[in-house]
Amino acid sequence: MVYPREHECMRELRLLTQQHPWGFMGSSPDQMQFFSMLLKMTGAKTTLEVGVFTGYSLLATALALPDDGKVVALDKSREWYDLGRPFIEKAGVAHKVDFRAGDGIAVLDRMLLAGDGEENGEGKFDFAYVDADKQRYAAYHERVLRLVRVGGVVAYDNTLWGGSVAMPRDTPGSSDHDRVVRDIFVEFNAAVAADDRVEACLLPIADGVTLCRRVK
């Protein structure tokens, strides 16, 4: 159901990403098909992406947006983004992409500053996707939620963390790193569920996707 409908440039980028030493960080095709449909259903025109890697999800977003749409994409590594840039250009959607290299928190803070010349400030985005360093999800949430308009949607990746959030912390086979990240997501998921600024839903797709609709 997914691969036959995958855009040719996305397929090429996915295959390239799989050869990368950090290829496991790439988003899954079924997840991106879902995001593509979600963006079209909600009529999103301006989106934000925190964590780009080689740009598979970025390309999916750019393809889903109308021709005058825009996705502002943040990542600490321009080198990784440059691997995927040729496929974005080949797909004819490079004009929709505004890539900004740098620390995610710092770039978001600049976007929130009044009077700094930014055209993308508070309440300007219809949709945001966060797939970056997990230790800072709570910090991203506070900033991204302000950047997304009321009624807009924020998606957080990896919130099931291999299902570990539903398992005992000392489950055999868990690494020290997995236990640390598992604890972060248990706390993050609980905080989002209790956040009265959003309606939240945790979807068991890929490695878990938490959708938040901003309500105030």
From TrEMBL:
Record bears the keyword S-adenosyl-L-methionine: yes
CDD domains linked: AdoMet_MTases
Matching Gene3D superfamilies: Vaccinia Virus protein VP39
Domain of life (superkingdom): Eukaryota
Signal peptide positions (record): none
Keyword Transferase applies: yes
Keyword annotations from UniProtKB, A to Z: Methyltransferase, S-adenosyl-L-methionine, Transferase
Gene Ontology process terms (BP): methylation
Pfam family, one: Methyltransf_3
Recorded GO MF terms: O-methyltransferase activity; S-adenosylmethionine-dependent methyltransferase activity
PANTHER family reported for this sequence: CAFFEOYL-COA O-METHYLTRANSFERASE, O-METHYLTRANSFERASE-RELATED
Family: Belongs to the class I-like SAM-binding methyltransferase superfamily. Cation-dependent O-methyltransferase family.
Protein's recorded name: Caffeoyl-CoA O-methyltransferase
Species annotation: Eragrostis curvula
